């Protein structure tokens, strides 16, 4: 098992199985020394964690939990194309989307759930550039969807 998977287990978040795509796309693609993930939903044991909207029926804390599950699913997607999570040298970019009401303004705090988790997993290499955007709807009624770019070594 990789050091990253050991760290995930230590944090109480074992790496899940690769989630099946919900459409006609790949979960992740490697191009050169970068891995690009498709938008990752917060599936936990095959179920969508905390569906709904921020500012309505989902709290910031619940959405932060969902963001952590999106990270786990992204790591499973990355592993499917690189074979070993220890090949990840750096988290380069995180794009987070938050389903929210028009008056909800805490999208950055929600995506902090993913950013802080990446720092816990990778240390300094987990620090990244980021966007946190609000939207009125996301696939399957999820409260968050996040895509990632990782720099990897061969």
UniProtKB/TrEMBL annotation:
InterPro entries documented for this protein: Endoribo_LPSP/chorism_mut-like (IPR013813), RutC-like_sf (IPR035959)
CDD domains (UniProt xref): YjgF_YER057c_UK114_like_1 (cd02199)
Annotated Endoribonuclease L-PSP/chorismate mutase-like domain residues: 5-139
SUPFAM superfamilies, per the entry: YjgF-like
Protein name from the UniProt record: Putative endoribonuclease L-PSP
């Amino acid at each position: 098992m990789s050091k990253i998977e050991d760290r995930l287990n230590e944090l109480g978040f074992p790496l899940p199985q690769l989630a099946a795509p919900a459409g006609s796309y790949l979960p992740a693609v490697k191009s050169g020394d970068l891995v690009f993930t498709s938008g990752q939903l917060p599936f936990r044991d095959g179920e969508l964690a905390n569906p709904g909207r921020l500012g309505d029926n989902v709290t910031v804390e619940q959405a932060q939990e969902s963001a952590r599950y999106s990270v786990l699913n992204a790591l499973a997607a990355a592993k499917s194309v690189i074979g070993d999570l220890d090949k990840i040298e750096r988290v380069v970019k995180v794009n987070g989307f938050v389903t929210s009401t028009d008056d909800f303004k805490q999208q950055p705090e929600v995506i902090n759930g993913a950013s802080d988790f990446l720092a816990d997993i990778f240390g300094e290499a987990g620090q990244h550039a980021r966007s946190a955007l609000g939207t009125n709807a996301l696939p399957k009624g999820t409260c968050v969807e996040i895509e990632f770019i990782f720099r990897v070594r061969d």
